[in-house]
Amino acid sequence: MSPDRQTLEKARAGDAAAFAKVVDSCYASIFRFAMKYTGQRQDAEDVAQQACIKLAHSIASYRFESAFSSWLYALVLNCARDWHRQQSRQRADTLDEDCGEAVADSADESRVYLRQVLDEVDAMGSGYRDTLVLVAGEGLSHREAAELLGVKESTISWRLHEIRKRLASAAMQENGHD
């Protein structure tokens, strides 16, 4: 996910070819992160596109104080959060329609399951989805996720513990075990 320093410096200075190299070297990681965050290909494409636009506007502000990958994760995470807020507003308006369509589309059960998991985690409050995607989805360590989210490492561990408990409880309820 990290282009070399020389390419980054050229991209920061406005070199379009260097910026294209940066995007080429990072796009797969950007899209993968967005896919894990959104759970839907079309939504992931939207988030990735917004992240690339934001990268174009923000790359000059990258100062080499941290790893480029960490800086980029923060940028993509912010785009994903913006998308999520927008989706939450839209979902509140069309909840009845969306529920019927999601259940009816059983062709891709894994996507429906991922959406259910993300919805369950969303119900837990702020920060849980970010924690889950960064640690379980992207493989970041608890320390890396904590630095990126601006919380203590113990908070990441606690959030993951709470997510596991919540999902286990939801699975038990779904299977008829109260």
Automatic annotation (TrEMBL):
Protein name per UniProt: RNA polymerase sigma-70 factor (ECF subfamily)
Domain annotation RNA polymerase sigma factor 70 region 4 type: ranges: 115-167
Lineage: Bacteria, Pseudomonadati, Pseudomonadota, Gammaproteobacteria, Pseudomonadales
NCBIfam families listed in its UniProt record: sigma70-ECF (TIGR02937)
Keywords: Sigma factor, Transcription, Transcription regulation
Similarity-based family: Belongs to the sigma-70 factor family. ECF subfamily.
One Gene Ontology molecular-function label: DNA binding
Annotated ranges, domain RNA polymerase sigma-70 region: 23-89
SUPFAM superfamilies the record matches: Sigma2 domain of RNA polymerase sigma factors, Sigma3 and sigma4 domains of RNA polymerase sigma factors
Stored Pfam families: Sigma70_r2, Sigma70_r4_2
BP-aspect Gene Ontology terms: DNA-templated transcription initiation
Taxonomy, superkingdom: Bacteria
